[in-house]
Amino acid sequence: MALSPVPQTSQVPGRLTRVMIVDDSAVIRGMIGRWLTEAGGFDIVATASNGRMAVDAAERSKPEIILLDIEMPEVDGLAALPLILKAHPASKVIVISTLTQRNAEISLKCLSLGAVDYLAKPESARAAGAANDFRRDLVEKLRALSETKVRQPRAYTAPAPTVVSSTPLASARPGTTKPQCLLIGSSTGGPRAVERVLSDMRPVLANIPVLIVQHMPAMFTAVFAEHLHTLLSVPAREARDGDAVVPGTILVAPGGRHMGVVSSGGKATIRLNDGPPENFCRPAVDVLFREAAAVYGASALAVVLTGMGSDGTPGARFLTKAGATVIAQDEATSIVWGMPGSIVKAGFAHEVLPLESIGRSLKGLITGSSK
């Protein structure tokens, strides 16, 4: 995923985000520390070369954000993560790994154990451009997380759904047309949120196709799709160009390619393309939403989950104009309320719900029963 250039300084006077860097390479630790210092707004409060040292350092230095390498001697990142979160539960952990299938699988496992995000670390043999992209992504993610309150696990009593009545473009009352396709867009914190939503609506997944754009590198999206298949016992895989969009199937946009949908002979099929990034993203939620609005109209059902940036907002305009229903995750349960918050502020969310309520709401809309 390509991101916009990060300003060199956006530091709030007197307020530095406390960061700990955990990597077995002194070169990498020094390089990341230098980048964050130059970007401004960050205080490197500790470094560690293995997971065992990281646990002790986290308890002592109380970092707000921890950058955690996966492959380290003695205690690796996967083993260290639960110990770190036990020592300092308030930390937000971003796991970092080189782009291999094994590391993608481990990174997703780390997300299930409490990490909030991941970054693909470029291999030393790759071009300098990859390092520049990594630097931009790193600073952008840390900035987004720095502006977000810590989400502590808690017993949650869902409030009544918030209906956003300021949607001026909707041409049909949302929820009156039976949904024919579920669209999901997410980014930072998205994998766990997607899992929760789909698990909660598991009984009705056979009734509707599900198309997902999750901001992830190419290797990760295939692993994520396989994980959903294993978790839900529902056909789920990375989308291929020309795939039929049929009920009971979950298709995940491949990393690095836009996923849209077109109608051919009365049937909906997947269209992948390598067009330029939209909202600095490829795949972009906007592409899926825009093309699905043209194909499904009011029978599209869309959800925007946790994630930084505003990807999905321009696409939601097309959906609401077509009469489709758009649901946004609320701020209290989002890791980063960028994408869903942008939808809400633009007036395109028909409901703003906590994560715990979204699956139930979708199930009710799909079956036509009360939520």
TrEMBL record:
Which principal EC class is assigned to this enzyme? hydrolase
| GO CC annotations, alphabetized | cytoplasm
Identify the residues that the record assigns to the Response regulatory domain, covering every copy.
18-136
Q: Which Pfam family would be a valid example here?
A: Response_reg
- Does Glycoprotein count among this protein's keywords? no
Coiled coil regions in record? none
PROSITE patterns hit by this protein: CHEB, RESPONSE_REGULATORY
SMART domains (UniProt xref): REC
Q: Which Gene3D superfamilies match?
A: 3.40.50.2300, Methylesterase CheB, C-terminal domain (3.40.50.180)
GO MF, any single term: protein-glutamate methylesterase activity
Q: Which residues carry this modification: 4-aspartylphosphate?
A: D69
Active-site residues, as the UniProt record annotates them: S187, H215, D311
Q: Name one GO biological process term.
A: chemotaxis
Segments carrying the region annotation (Disordered) are 157-176
InterPro entries hit by this protein = CheB-like, CheB_C, CheY-like_superfamily, Sig_transdc_resp-reg_Me-estase, Sig_transdc_resp-reg_receiver
Q: What is its main location?
A: cytoplasm
Its catalytic activity? L-glutaminyl-[protein] + H2O = L-glutamyl-[protein] + NH4(+); [protein]-L-glutamate 5-O-methyl ester + H2O = L-glutamyl-[protein] + methanol + H(+)
- Keywords associated with the record: Chemotaxis, Cytoplasm, Hydrolase, Phosphoprotein
Matching entries from HAMAP family are given as: CheB_chemtxs
Which protein family is it in?
Belongs to the CheB family.
Q: Domain notes, please?
A: Contains a C-terminal catalytic domain, and an N-terminal region which modulates catalytic activity.
Its protein name is Protein-glutamate methylesterase/protein-glutamine glutaminase
Q: Which organism is it from?
A: Microvirga tunisiensis
